[in-house]
């Protein structure tokens, strides 16, 4: 490892920055086309160093190892890390760095990953040291020693290897300790301070852009859900309104029908019934009519109520018994068609009508009024 930077001559290269046209201010926002977003992330430029920009994804994985749980498949996880190291190496081949710098960068990254995993609970139980990244890629196991050896060599040529020094400094700040893990940490802090001083000498302080305060759009007050009490009050009023509307509709629909019922004249119905139910006896029923009409007018007309006609005398006897128990005085009259049941009603036609209606309702009859036979 002592000859890591002596195998080939180091060539000093200058980084050229492409001129990027300035974006117009206050440009209108347009729909973002996410096609090729992976390419944009891969080429994301965060640091002034192209070497650090190429290792951005590896940094993202490294800082989350301490918070991650044990992988379901440790071999698959190891292969993923190896693939990421391979991608970093391929990117470095297109950068303005000597191939040895890319190889040493892969070496220190593997050492940082191995140490971070070894000191996790699941890394220790999985015996990561037997199949570490350094052993797979570089067939070495002394990453903790070689890291600081490379750091010392690079510190002797800071003008040419400042990007590599910056990569190692980032790994130190992310928690890499190497051979100083179990020693006094003051030595490690001193190394970090020295490396920072070297990098600071070759790196101009970048001015952080002042964030622009966005213009907030004044929005309306968001609609709040009603409380339970307000909901119950609204439901009560809705119920009252619906009930009142239904009553109003029912009243308007029922009034014409009630008016038609009230318009029925019961007296006219009675007259109609009288015309239909009063039978005027013929001359054959009452015998000879007195020729003297004046004498007939003087005589008072007598009426009787015809209750029913029966073909069997037994039925007539049963109804007579019921009427007598109710206080009436019925009598029967035999005819050619059977037995007829009568009640003498007198001469007051209005009283006779009431009697007829009472008998019809009380005994479920269809009685008629008939002039009495003399």
TrEMBL record:
The chain crosses the membrane at residues 232-251. The keyword Acyltransferase does not apply. It comes from the Bacteria. Residues 51-249 form the Type IV / VI secretion system DotU domain. InterPro entries: T4/T6SS_DotU, T4/T6SS_DotU_sf. Keywords: Membrane, Transmembrane, Transmembrane helix. The keyword Transmembrane helix applies. This is Type VI secretion protein VasF-1. It comes from Aliivibrio salmonicida (strain LFI1238).
